[in-house]
Amino acid sequence: MNGIFRNPWWVVFGAVIGLMVGNGPVMQFTFGVFLKPISEDMGWDRGTISLALNAGLILTGLATPIAGRLIDKYGIRTVSLPAITVFALTTASVSLVSSSATIFIALYAIMGIAAAGQTPMPYSKAIASWFDRKRGLALGIAISGVGLGTAIMPKFVQSLIESHGWREAYLGLGILTFVLAFPAVLLFIRERPAGRDQKGHVKRFHGEGLSAAEALRNGDFWKLSIAFFFVALGANGAIAHVVPLLTDRGVAPDVAISAMAVAGVALIGGRLLSGYLMDRIFAPYVAAVFFVMPLLGLLVLMGADTVTMGAIGTVLIGIGLGAEVDLIAFLLSRYLGNRHFGEIYGYLFLVFMLGSGLGPMIMGVAFDRFGGYGEMMMALSAGLLIAIVIMLLMKPYRFPPKPEGTDEEDAPASE
Is the pLDDT assigned to residue 250 strictly greater than 80? Predict the structure, then answer.
């Protein structure tokens, strides 16, 4: 990096700004705010509306390995800048939906594909190339941008819905996404350079690690996949329905939205704390502790009928959500390496997004069928228990931190 942006912590700063309007805060964590207004206006049931989010999240997962492979080959900005543009435009275009639920679902599907370039993957790849011994902290700070977005975006959307309507809220959300994410990636996000080739062109840093094919045959990859699937299924399934769950029990809509904002703050704290601890404690043990949090949150929400209990349950889930994405990046880099980080992250993120998409959908279907969420929340709690056990059984790192004084942030390379 040149000039004032040479310090690698500027990459972390750019990631915070970009991830405030990443796929999670924009597509996922505002969804519960839109759910009732759209249902009341369009006459669609919650299961149908939730199918749109399910389609978007699953397609994000399917597209992320492709985006990761392209980023590994061509670089972050080449892929992410066009993706951010399409993601923002499609978000704004939801405001134009008429009476067709099919078009609504299709727009979320397109949004999901474009979101592959606006997931934590490109930001995590850049940070993993610049940081080694402080990788956990750097990832925790960077991905706290998701927590900021989770705290701010639902309030932003609710304010627009109350003043202008849900259509204008989608338009405003799309504009804000582009205004924040595009400059953040353009100015700050890049991989660590690894010298120059014979023609004088800067080479990108790849580091050591398994190939994508080797990773797919590795047992650690599948352990991580199973664990993060169940965490995503439980935590994201619950968080997407927190607002309607609480309002169904008599909590005022603005108070329920405030619970989501508190979850966003908890998410920030979870990411910062987990990042700090991962640099000092065996990361799977850190993961196990943070996976206990959404499990407790689900148990609390099952009986929550007051603002206080609802807030406590939401905060506990938020703490767990605050740790999972940076845990994926950190554990990937330690067990599978950085050489094909983008593509391998894409496969893990695919599994994660399958859980993230199925969770809200099955919660919506459970409500339509049973008139409540209790039975499904018990099943999601069992999945979280499986994830905790897997983390406790993980073996030592394949790619441990380098000795002190040799990590990347101590000796930033020049371009």
Answer: no
